[in-house]
Amino acid sequence: MMLEILANTAVRMLLLGAATWLTVRIIRVRNPHVEVLVWRMVLLAGLALPALLYLRLAPSFATSFELPMIAAAGAGGSYTSGAADRMSWLPAAVPSTIYLVVALLLLGRLIGGLVAMWRVSRAAESMTTPDDVRISARVRSPATFGTVILLPVDARAWSADRLDAVLAHERAHVRGRDGLWSWLAQFHAAVFWFNPFAWWLQRRIEALAETTSDEAVVAARHDPVAYAALLLDFARNPNSRSVAMSVAESNVPERIERLLARIPPASALTRVARWCAFATLIPVVVLAASTTQAAPPTEAAAATETPVQKAPVSLNPVAVRINRASNPDSFYPAVAKNENVSGYAIVEADLDRLGQLVDARVLKVEPAEPRFGFADAALQVARTSTFSNSTQQVASLRFMVKFDLEK
């Protein structure tokens, strides 16, 4: 279940990332502040999608084409489907174990780096500046950790112009909360380590953060050529990744090339623009988490369509018990529960090639009196159950839903 949701999220993120990249290129976004905001919103979408898919909060649209949907069991349901029970646990356990081992290793590396950086910043010596600037022998080049700016020991001998340029760059990181966004991107990449887009997104967010901070230096009227030489000097003596968690590793040549081209710094975004972007993110995430289902054919289309032979899925009847003590209100009809009436219903479900429920109907119900509501309750169980269609063909199955008030 977990891997299905993560794989579904990875596919949707690939599509969302491709659409975003294409849009950015078509409209020719040149402002790095705008682009970094766009990719940060995509990152938030990637972090929110698994929860939306698991809780099934996004809408489902009836269309002529279908996208895969991960069917998640309801939080309070005490039911199961026969097709799912027939699946062997061993084939699912192997990829789950591999995923968890790699994800835990990557998350452990991230946490270990953050702890190491926290220790470095805690042991560093504070400078007499309005903001939190510290000197550390463990740092070879300037870095930030949250709101802390870390400088190497030789920073005490720097000229005033060199120090001002470095602080302008690092203070831009602090204002933009670039360290926090870098950590979120690294966390996203650790969870979705099998998705190449997650790693590309992390590098892109970090690279744009460096570009916007470089522009803050140029905007402070520092010489771009002199600052490019300063970057080259720092690149010759980089920090260890385990010590500096928010430093981009591979875009120094692009940064120097941009500085030497003397490209004018772009305008930073206002707070209103950032909040508007966040508001736009909500419908985008809902759309990305939405699912599709086949629209029912019209009468005219049904008359001309060639009948499709359904491949039945062999199933034994499955009893779904509702325990009064643990979960009395999940699916048990209120009238039947109040009158202490038990019953069952036989349901026939139609599945598409992906195992999604297309339609369900009750073939038999006991007791048959409509006032007990067993038929409607059984249909609700069918609509919220998870099915598996190994035939990869249009299929139908029958199963029993048993309502039993256990004492």
Shape: elongated
Strand content: 5-15%
Helix-and-strand structural type: alpha/beta
Q: Assembly state here?
A: single chain
Record field, number of beta strands: 9
Percent in helix = 40-55%
The value of Rg in angstroms is 29 Å
Strands side by side in the biggest sheet: 2-3-5-4
Quickly name the level 1 CATH class of the domain at 309-403: Alpha Beta
Q: What CATH architecture of the domain at 309-403 would you give? A: 2-Layer Sandwich
- Put simply, the count of helices is 13
Main sheet overview: 4 strands, mixed
What are the salient characteristics of this protein?
407 residues, alpha/beta, four-stranded mixed β-sheet, three-stranded antiparallel β-sheet, 13 helices, 9 strands, 50% helix
List the helices and strands and how they pair.
Elements lengths: L1 H25 L5 H24 L4 E4 L18 H5 L2 H35 L1 E2 L6 E3 L7 E3 L2 E4 L8 H16 L2 H14 L4 H24 L4 H12 L16 H9 L10 H19 L1 E4 L4 H6 L29 H5 L4 E9 L5 E10 L7 H11 L10 E9 L4
Parallel strand pairs: 1-6, 3-5
Antiparallel strand pairs: 2-3, 4-5, 7-8, 7-9
